[in-house]
Write a structure and sequence with these properties.
This protein is of the alpha+beta class and 425 residues long. It has helices at residues 9-35, 42-68, 87-101, 103-106, 113-122, 125-132, 184-189, 268-303, 319-346, 352-377, 379-382, 388-395, 405-417, and strands at residues 143-146, 162-166, 171-182, 194-200, 210-216, 222-227, 238-249.
Length: 425
């Protein structure tokens, strides 16, 4: 049986369209949007919204169809045509290309984003329809996820934001603080935006007490208290929220097995399932940034007579040629790992190991590649005359959010060696 490595035709067609946006809309605005942090890329938003609406519709309808067929939503359809699912594969290809255009602008893309990933991972069919159908209609809107707290970054078991059920009103009451919420301002400002907030129903239960709650934009008691000024991805907003007696309907607690006291199995495990789906996306974004830096360094040096030579033995290459070759090697390794993790997600396989592995590899690779590009280009790379220094600044976040490189390395080690969290930390 032959193995096909070519990109499916429908994805190639989509990529050609996305490349036009990356080259003609994103790149020309990169420097201006970087210099004017948090300025909304209006042209990009309105150009991408119709395509994102269609992707949201396809993903939602497929998820609801699987639920009707008795599938838990994590496996491919067991009925109908035996056409491979490629929704996630198409998504990572698109995100790689958009991040090649500009990673900060890409993060402003109107979509359900991490909120949608959490709802897809643990929400009921009714919750998916109620919360995600809005992203297929109307004007551009955004979703976000709020998990990190001042004392709970990688240590999610230390989350202090509380959720208390009020039987008199059939509502959950949320209190606490969330920081470093990517896209939180966009989600907060639009009337149909939503934020998935992770809170604890029992502080003494650790991770077992964690539950995901949907907080819709403009809900009383939810307030932005800080908008971060950042090293990179400056077109994207990153905010801190305070929840002060923020009341939400009882059925905004995600998951059908959750009782009113918050018991059930879809808390911390639901968060991890969300990350298994989103870590390949972060890796794809890192690879897009890395490819931008590599291609620019390669092409600029080629104009000065330094060209890649794939046929010469390593010992005959100049130091600069060897550096370029290593940059491309790291890029391709990270991309292959990302494609494997994504393909496993599309076929319903457990991709926890591969999702963390591609995230670790891409985070390290993009950091090294962008730094090397600046180094090889010298003063040209270090100045704002080109985007090389910006790519280096944009790169590092991919090694931090969605689980730091250290945390994901621990996950990889536990999965390979068979250790529990208590045994290896």
């Amino acid at each position: 049986m032959a193995i096909e490595f070519s990109t499916p035709d429908e994805i190639e067609k989509q990529l050609r369209q996305v490349q036009v946006v990356a080259e003609n809309v994103m790149r020309p605005e990169s420097r201006v949007l970087d210099d004017n942090e948090h300025s909304r890329p209006v042209n990009f938003v309105h150009m991408m919204w119709p395509q994102m609406q269609e992707m949201e519709r396809i993903n939602l309808d497929a998820s609801l169809r699987r639920a009707r067929n008795g599938n838990n939503g994590t496996k491919p359809d067991s009925v109908g045509p035996k056409k491979p699912r490629t929704a996630n594969l198409a998504l990572v290809h698109m995100i790689e290309m958009l991040s090649w255009g500009d990673a900060g602008v890409y993060l402003c893309i109107p979509s359900s984003a991490l909120a949608g990933a959490a709802i897809q991972a643990v929400g009921t069919p009714e919750q998916k329809e109620r919360f995600l159908r809005r992203f297929t209609e109307g004007e551009p809107k955004w979703g976000a996820m709020a998990m990190t707290e001042p004392q709970a970054g990688s240590d999610t078991s230390n989350i202090q934001t509380t959720a208390v059920f009020d039987p008199a009103t059939n509502e959950w009451v949320l209190n606490g603080q969330k920081i470093f919420c990517t896209g939180g301002k966009l989600a907060y400002e639009e009337s149909d935006g939503l934020i998935v907030v992770w809170a604890t129903v029992d502080k003494h239960a650790g991770r077992a007490g964690m539950k995901p709650f949907v907080v819709e934009a403009n809900t009383p008691g939810l307030k932005i208290v800080k908008v971060e000024e950042k090293l990179g991805i400056r077109a994207s907003d990153t905010v801190s929220f305070v929840l002060d007696n923020c009341r939400i309907p009882a059925d905004n607690l995600l998951g059908e097995s959750e009782a009113k006291n918050g018991s059930g199995s879809k808390g911390f495990k639901g968060a991890m399932r969300t990350f298994d789906a989103t870590r390949p996306i972060v890796a794809a974004s890192a690879i897009g940034i890395g490819r931008a830096a590599f291609e620019f360094a390669r092409d600029t040096l080629a104009k000065q007579g330094v060209r890649m030579d794939y046929e010469a033995p390593r010992w005959k290459l100049s130091t600069v040629q060897a550096d370029l070759l290593e940059m491309e090697t790291q890029l391709r390794q990270a991309w292959l790992l990302t494609l494997r993790a994504t393909a496993m997600l599309d076929t319903g396989e457990d991709n926890k190991l591969m999702a963390s592995m591609c995230k670790v590899k891409a985070g390290k690779a993009v950091t090294v590649i962008t730094q090397k590009a600046v180094e090889l280009l010298g003063p040209l790379g270090y100045s704002t005359q080109t985007l090389a220094e910006k790519w280096m600044r944009d790169a590092k976040i991919n090694d931090i959010y969605e689980g730091t490189g250290q945390i994901n390395t621990l996950i990889v080690a536990r999965e390979i060696l068979g250790y529990t969290r208590a045994e290896l930390k």
